[in-house]
Write the structure tokens for this entry.
Amino acid sequence: MADERKGIIAAGFSLLWRRQGVLWWVFIVSLILGGLGALPATINIGHALNHSLAGQQLTTRFDLGMYIELLRLPDVNITRYDPAVEVSVFLFFLFTLFVTGGILETYRQDRRLNTGEFFSASGAFFWRFVRLLLLSIVPFVIVGLIYQGLSKLADHVGDRAIADQVGIFSSLGAVIIFMLLALWVRLWFDLAQVRAVVQNERGMWRNLWNSWRITWHAGIYWKYVAIALVAWVTLGIGVVLWANVPSSSTPLIFLVLELIIFAQLATRLWQLASAMTWYQRYAETLVVVQPIIETVPPPVEVIETPVVTDLPPAGAGPELPPADA
Amino acid sequence: MRHRLVGWFCVVTTFCAVAVAQSPFAPKVTGPLSKRVVAYQIDAKYDPPAHSVEATETLTYHNLTGQALDTFPFHLYLNAFQPQSTWIHEAHRDGNFRSSNLAHWKPEDYGSNVVSSFEVEGMGDLTNQMKFVSPDDGNPNDKTVFQVKLPRPVALGQDVVFHIKFKATFPEVIARTGYKRTFLLAGQWFPKVGVWWHGQWNCHQFHALTEFFADFGTFDVKVTLPKDYVIGASGVQVSDQDNGNGTKTVGFHGEDIHDFAWTADPNFKVVNETFNGSVGSVRIRLLTYDSHKQSWDPYIYCMTNTMKRFDDWYGPYPYAQITVVDPPHGAMEAGGMEYPTFITGDSGWYIPPGVHFIDLVTEHEFGHQYWYGMVATNEFENAWLDEGLNSYTEAKVLDNMYGENTSVINWLGGQLGEPEVQRLQYLGSPDFDPLARHSYQDASMSSYGAISYGKTASMLLTLEKVVGEETMKNAMHVYFMRYRFTHPTSEDFVNTVSEVAGQDLSWYWNQAVYGSQVMDYEVQRADSTPLKWWDENLKEKKGETEYETQVILHRKGDFVFPVDAVVKFDDGSMTREHWDGKERWVRYVYRKKAQVESVAIDPDYRVTMDRDYLNNSRVTDEQHGATHKLATYWTFVAQFLAQLLSWLA
């Protein structure tokens, strides 16, 4: 395959591209759930705005004062619609957890699964991934605690420095370390998911242990970091684009915002595709390390043989029988 | 010869520069500008590691009260930062004070003023006569005001001289005073005599939200501090002496001011600029930091442009200098404060372009040089004349500088104008307190902020609808020129505006200043029906069918105010109605070959006291543009949050 010659990042992207149907599907679900989450607020905002000229302050430009005033209205009170957004967010989380098995199976086979195959794979791995999710709480909490400590240290350093920048960059350093650690944990659990799919691994503790060992190997972590950087860059570009879209052009604003979401989802799936590619290409050679069993060789009878001086050339030997013989 | 001439020229110009620099006034101004009641001479020694000042104060009080006085009250403000003070009680009652977390109040946050000796010339040592009093709330643990009864009264027209030794210990910066690392803002730091006003002493305790009222006079203050410190203060610097022991003593002189603050930090950078106003040049001395370099130009731009507008619109700034302090990071509590000829701003290492935060604070604090510094109203009792008038002029100046609707934020597509900021603050708590209530007695901090700042600004912006923008500008000018260097009251202000407007505005003041009425107008109905609605064969045709249009305007609030409404029809015609608003509602009926398209009360959003802009207009055909736009943002936010959470899956 041509991918064999590509680096992991390129091969991962290639896999993502070939199986882009998965990405589009996830994106559409994200859009639908996001729209449903926003629906109650939209309806009530509509009641307040659709018959008022005040809405022009939000279309011809974006008057923050008018927006705040709108949110202050008892009927449009933003806090009332939190639950709808929260539910939609949680549903998307569950959805992602559920379909990750199907996505990884698609990437493993590198072919388009039909709906039955996809959901069958999703269902097959769901509870294993739930167990992984629960187990991931521990390392994520540890990373969170490390961040808290670093953050306090950064505050301490910043508070004593004359220049603001010391504190800002110390805090930024703490955030970067936190993100790198969190990304490492994410990679660890991504590889556990990949292993579960490729090896049909059922024991999640064992799976985690094996994944832990391979996560330390090779450069897959830095490839994850590189893809994460792409995610941040696309986010930044998206924000710049959004800032330059004419305020009155709602369709264009919608397009730019959805491009941001699409790019974020794409980079996440790119990471998964890269992890799968990397695992299939290298990881088994790292993990299939059989335990060394110490055995005592049987006593060998030493027989005196004449010295052979006319050896056959290397590679020559007795002809082996065919495999099916 | 040429060198000699140059030498003489240098000597002469240096002499002139020193002479000019030592005058507390701008070149075309000579004092006295006020009735100088007090003359302070303070010799202070700053101990940076202890964050404290040991000082001797000589106060000469000229008894111009019209009667003999035998009792004198003094403020000791730094005692406010003690656990059982009224200040702490009030600040804790209403949550936290600005960025200070009073739930985690530590001993290093404490401050104090301790008077070790109190002598009166000719009357001896009266230290034992000092008695703490709490005229406002009777709090026996509040030590922010003490009074001394003299053995014999000071006759009318006579002077009395007080010699006070005191130690001021500063808290870690809180409520616009205190230290942070090597930075110190010394505000409200010395024993300050109360004001004899309306036949009695006016010397309130230090409250969480009000603290200013003092008599005009002269200040000669010397501060001894380590040699490497850069110092700035009220007035102008008149001396700088190296003591040879690693310290220096810097002298300042101020005239016709009523308070004195100073700041010091070895890390300060000094940026100087000159503003050329109608009474000559004024030196702008910015004390800032290398790490705030990005803010230097915005500070200077804001100061020169603000000073120009105040000079053009309201009157001259008569002093020789204005010192602007840009506090270091972590000392936000020192930011945004006013003292005579001395203000503190607020900035940071990065503020996005289009976010006029530095301007917002700096303009406001400079405005206080007029509404507090020169027109020295009683902030304890009439904070609206101080913070409120200042918020109004802030809206006028910033709008003029950066454009209406964009004077605070014009960044990433979002826009926010200063009048809207004031209005939103007002709407936060519009009906608890009238402006006329003593400010320290307001229901809460949020009510104080809403009323003193937001309501006053909104009320005066709304008044422009009645008297006109130019008349209001003129009224502010007359009020400033008439009452500068005095202590005017609410009545002085409202009477001045009414007089300049040439109208009896009592109907307005009664509601806006002395009452707590809230204004809310709505378009209750706007629709058109064919005149021949009973005709079964009627086929409506644009431009030919005759309609009857009904428009009902409704006054929902209890604030009566005349409003204009614009009615637009689908044939492009438009009519403007003026309603005095006295009845609860009014109906307008039109018969024409056109249907109503929209009705808008106050279509330009000038009546900023109206509590709900959204019901001020009505369109007959739904407009979904804004709803779709907001739905787009809400959907994006939901998706983005979902995508973040799913990263954990």
Summary: Residues 1-6, 9-21 of chain B have pLDDT under 50 and may be disordered. Chain B touches chain A through 63 residues (CB under 8 Å).
